[in-house]
Amino acid sequence: MKYYAYHLSMTEDDLQGATIALIPGAPERVVTIAQEFGSYQEIAFHREYRSVIADDGKHRILVVSSGIGGPSLAITIEELARLGIKIFIRVGTCGAIQDFIQVGDLIISEGAVRMDGTSEHYAPISFPACADFTVITALNQATKQLGYNFHSGITCTSATFYPGQERYDTYTHYVIRSLQGSFEEWKKLGILNYEMEVATLFTLARVFQLKAGAVCGVIVNRNQKEDVNLEMLQEVEKRLSRVAVNAAKILLSQMDTTQLS
């Protein structure tokens, strides 16, 4: 009996042989990414999980949205792994915390601070959240080929958007004591950005002995202002889509070469 992924609402047959998944958070970003690869076919849309198979005439990849945060992403990775996906690339947006990073830049995460909460259900906190070298090399290569400005380094993954990232523009205007000063601490330690999924992805992929990487587009720099420019957001989404798709093609070509040899 074939495995049916309940939350993703699909079976192995729906993947049509795809072994690479590009994973944005937002369902509306799925088609933007798939179009960069080639023709596409939507195969499922259940809750926050929108899934599309993209075909360039030679290969197929899966593009599936994960929603926001570690818990929903963990479900995505669990079910995709059982369906046969071997390589995962997160394609998301983020807030930079270093002064030298500009809005519109891309960040390729080499590792992540595990403030996501979810990953502790898979490995003790002392277990590192690290990207796969092959995947981040492909992301670096794709970004350079496209001429986009980017930074590689460590990301902080927070379980929450507001207190975990030390935002005070909230209903209570209060952040608990253990998180007060965390923004400046991460900044001094050289952390590049905040987001909400990378640490979960990297930890699960390592525990499952699969491969993962992540590229995030900077839509705000927290040292400047929080307002998101919608035109810049659209441009960032285009850059992310192109980089992720080109990286997937690099990885697919490497897989073809390996199979031939």
Structure write-up:
- The chain has 261 residues and is α/β, with parallel strands linked by helices.
- It has one domain: Nucleoside phosphorylase domain (Rossmann fold, 3-Layer(aba) Sandwich).
- It contains seven helices and twelve strands.
- The protein has helices spanning 12-15, 29-37, 70-83, 133-146, 182-188, 198-207, 230-260, and strands at 4-5, 10-11, 20-23, 39-46, 49-55, 60-64, 87-96, 106-115, 129-130, 150-158, 193-195, 211-221.
- The strands form two sheets. Strands 7-11-10-8-12 form a five-stranded mixed barrel. Strands 1-2 form a two-stranded antiparallel sheet.
- Strand 1 and strand 2 form a beta hairpin.
- The chain is globular.
- The two termini are 34 Å apart.
- The mean pLDDT is 96.
